[in-house]
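User: Predict the full complex structure for these chains.
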Amino acid sequence: MVGLRFDLRDTPPEAPALRAELRAFLAEAGRHWSPRVRAYSWMAFDRDFSREVGKRGWIGMTWPAAYGGGERSFLERYVTLEEMLAVGAPVGAHWIGDRQSGPLILRLGTEEQRREFIPRIVSGELAFAIGLSEPDSGSDLASLRTRAEKVPGGYRLNGRKVWTTNAHRCDFAITLLRTSPAPDPKLKHQGLTQLLVDLRASGIEIRPILDLAGEEGFNEITFDNVFVPDSLLIGVEGKGWEQATSELAFERSGPERYLSSLPLLTAAMDSLHDEPAAPEAVGRMLARANTLRQMSLSVAGMLQDGEAPAREAALIKDVGNDFEQALPDRIRALYAGPMPDDVAEMQTTMNMVARSYSLRGGTREILRGIIARQLGLR
Amino acid sequence: MSEMRDILLEQVERLLADQSGPETLRQVEAGVWPAALWAEVEALGLPLAMASEEAGGVALGWDDAVAVWVALGRAGAPVPLAESMAAAAFAPAAGFLALAQPDGTAMWGRAAAQVLAGDGALHAAGFTPGKAQPSNEPWDRATLPGGEATLLAGALVNSAKMAGGLEAVLTLSVDYANVRKQFGKPIGQFQAVSQQLSQAAGEVAAAGVAVANAGRAVARRGLGGAEFEIGAAKVITGEATALVAAVAHQVHAAIGFTQDYHLHFTTRRLWAWRDAFGNERFWAQRIGRAALARGGANAWPDLAAREDG
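Assistant: Here is the predicted structure of the two-chain assembly.
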């Protein structure tokens, strides 16, 4: 269809054994996760859990063994992610490092950076945040103004980042900064640079921001003359935009773009037997979940083959976000009376958290703009 | 994708490009059997393609057949080739084979050499002519043995045609948005228009994947083992039709609301096909009832296991 391809992929032959191992682990680890924790899932931060996941080789699964990685396939990693998300596991402490920071350091980092960071991401010891949005730069990200000024031996940072998920709990943030002014407002994508920022460095102030559901999920970070050594430059100075956007296919196509609310569906099913509208509604939701899963697997397969299906990823995220965002209301609509307590706790929390689904990682409007360009519009 | 699929697809696409278009579809709606086109598809051996070699076919798999049906749907399915291929997969025989719904109705029943009925067997039957709504395609009724033997195959055939029809409607709409100018520029440059088309593109892509996935499931596990995937494909193509047709008509505005312009041939067919062999509600209830009976704890493991070896 109009230049977008979604060839079907098979799950890997290792899948059944891997799932059995994951389910046994998750059943034990998840005994005390509250419905509220499950509702947050990949934004819920639990370092102890991430260390246990790391111990079992489920972080950095596709990375080279030389840095502690598992050298397994993308599709095995995919199976691992979907099993975690399907039960709403609190994977937030290692999610960003595994999905984005680790791959970026492996691809563009120096040998020293790889040796320094990758093994500690794999073990679940290091948690990463992503410093992109600023108070005046959201969807128009390239207009960002937080500066990294070149000084002897490194950079000096001044400015503010905002909505940085879990930054107050993380160790490092891969941060996009302006190292030289844009030569022209139309060339604002130039002069941006990615730096690895130690979130405990002097001059950094992190202020948690309460989200609407009452969690300290995201933050405002203020940089006041923060020094970052040259050794923490990622890739090439001035190429930050190209580097940051090249990760988007990874960021946008994963199972977290449609599975965020699945735990609510499965939790609700056993109390819906007497609700007459339930079979149809559950059938529609499962039909869509299965279809989105095949689309997401298709992109995972393309990533496995070394392709960069950024537009397919934007489309999946858009369709997936619509599904996962609508799900809490669709579940609520099936109950004539009150929901059981555990379903109610998850539903009310998730209904609030779901507002973020079509914002985080590229808003619905930005994604549809990308799809429109692919269609040949604009 | 098999080599066989590539060859057949190329043949079918070339044939449809040369010999089908709005005039053919108009003739079909007037009840004129597309004899020339049918003769061509028979000459290519397509109706029997899914039959075994001993029975005169090439043992074309369901996954490959689905790709051919999507191509047919893109052109508005001017001949009932998909139905005949599916019927021949059960019971190979010469000539056009109609595929009856459990209620004894069938597309182009009046022109059929035989009809595959709900009991899974071929019958010679006298059909009373009728019309599908709102496509006006010949949709005829006969008294036939009941049963659900054709239900899954018919749902897959119609989902596949819909996936193709949805693609065609999107392509028409994008092309129109790029040429129709208002306020000094193509309307596709207005976000209010382009964002609708992007959303429609998402539904079209989902429909294509749901249908391909159902074809693969049948190829692996047979029709009975693919009820979930076939039902899901019918649900998703039906849901996509609601949105994509609405967007297409909104983008085309008044011209799309006329018989002069050809958008309606495909949108009316989509609205008819979504009702054939079980609508979205019918299939969603089947899937949902089965899943509720299995319980919440099994819902994810069941879904995940479907493609695990």
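The first helix of chain B runs from residue 3 to 19.
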